[in-house]
Design brief:
The chain contains three helices and three strands. By secondary structure, the chain is α+β, with helices and mostly antiparallel strands.
């Protein structure tokens, strides 16, 4: 009886794994979206959150949490959609062309 139970358990696990693999979305991840403004927090455990589309939005959060706003260096380098080789002005910085 234990062999039958083991075989049924293995069959059940195999079926679940197959269903999981079928239902997983295997598309590549979308491009990272960089926001132009970051709030930089001070003090112990200082951190940075770059989730703001305007300076005003960033300042509203920073004022309430004791932080300050800085431009996102990733946004300046890669732009909104994370396109490598393009700065915020849209100029190509590719040295190999």
């Amino acid at each position: 009886m234990t062999t039958i139970r083991a075989a049924l358990a293995l069959l059940a696990v195999s079926a679940l794994v197959t269903i999981d693999l079928i239902t997983i979305d295997l598309r590549p991840a979308g491009a990272e979206i960089y926001r132009p403004w970051c709030v930089q927090y001070r003090g112990q455990g200082a951190s940075r959150s770059c989730a703001f589309i305007s300076f005003e939005q960033c300042m509203l959060t920073a004022r309430g949490a004791g932080g300050s706003c800085v431009q996102n260096p990733w946004y300046l380098e890669y732009g909104e959609r994370g396109e490598r080789g393009r700065g915020s002005a849209g100029k190509s910085q590719d040295k190999w062309r």
